[in-house]
Amino acid sequence: MGKKKHMANSLQAVQSNSKTTDLKTSVATSADVWIICIHGLFVQCIYIYTMYPTIPGGDSGELITAAHELGVAHPPGYPVFTLMAWLAIKLVPLGSVAWRVNLLNAVLAAGASLVFSITIYRYTRCVGSAVLGSSLWSFCKLTWTWSVSAEVFGLNNLCVASLLYLMVAFRDAKDDAKLKVAYIGAFVSGLSLCNQHTIVVYVAVIAVLVLWELWNAKVLSVTKLVQLGMCFLLGLVPYIYLPLSSLFSKARWSWGDQSTLKGFMRHLLRAEYGTFDLAKGQNVESRSLVFSNLRGYVDHCISEYTAVCVVLAIVGIGVSIVRRCRCMSTVLAMCLLYLVMFSWRANLSLSEQLHLGVVERFWMQADMVFILFVTLGFFTVLRFLKDKTDTVSKYRLGLVLAVMACSKQLQRNFADCNHRNNTVVWEFGSRLFHNMPQNALVLTVGDLPSNVLRYIYWCENDRPDVQVLDQELLSYSWFVPKLRHAYPNIKFPGHHMETQNGRLSNGQWVFNFRAFLNAHYDKYEHLNRAL
Question: Domain range holding 188?
Answer without folding.
Answer: 2-12+26-417
